[in-house]
Amino acid sequence: MMKTLTPFILGMLACAAITLAIVVGATAQGAGSGKGRLFITVTTDDPWANEMAISYAETTKSRGYDVTLFYQVRGVRTAAKKVPSGLAEAQQRLRKAMSRGIEVYVCGMCSTRAGITPMSGWIEGTKPGDPGMVDKMMDLGTKVMSY
After folding, report:
1. Which residues pair with 127 in a beta bridge?
2. Backbone angles phi and psi of 100, in degrees to 5
3. pLDDT of 58-116, one tens digit each?
4. Residue 145 CB: number of other CB atoms within 10 A?
5. Residue 133 pLDDT class (50, 70, 90 cuts)
6. How far apart are CA 48 and CA 50, in angstroms?
7. What is the mean pLDDT of the chain?
8. DSSP alpha helix (H) spans, the chain
9. How many CB atoms neighbour CB 9 within 10 A?
10. How far apart are alpha carbons 88 and 30 in whole angstroms?
11. Range 73-90 burial, b when 16+ CB lie within 10 A, else e
């Protein structure tokens, strides 16, 4: 009986050690804000998708995580001063989200392609995307979501 229990006990100890390593690793990875970061990239000008992205950002921020929204491709239209009428409501929500501490970055190259002048054509509070965006996305404490 003892010989059959030993592999079982060793297996349970191994599982416990792996679980502890995962928990400790996850805690260390999210050390910047205490909980980690959600990085949401928005590539569409679809109002429904934009509002869903902002909703996830707000919910995540309210739970203590750092949140970054990165608008690129057609998504840059949501952050434009001259917002298309179909995106006006999404932009209102975006402004509220920004006032709650959600970082918002906009791709300059995509803006130019969409006919929006980078920076001066964006709503107040947005920041230009830069190569550092890759570091934010690749950080071990970051989860990436795309719309």
Report:
1. 105
2. -95, 5
3. 999 999 999 999 999 999 999 999 999 999 999 999 999 999 999 999 999 999 999 99
4. 15
5. confident
6. 5
7. 84
8. 2-29, 47-62, 88-99, 108-113, 132-138
9. 10
10. 34
11. bebbbbbbeebeeebeeb
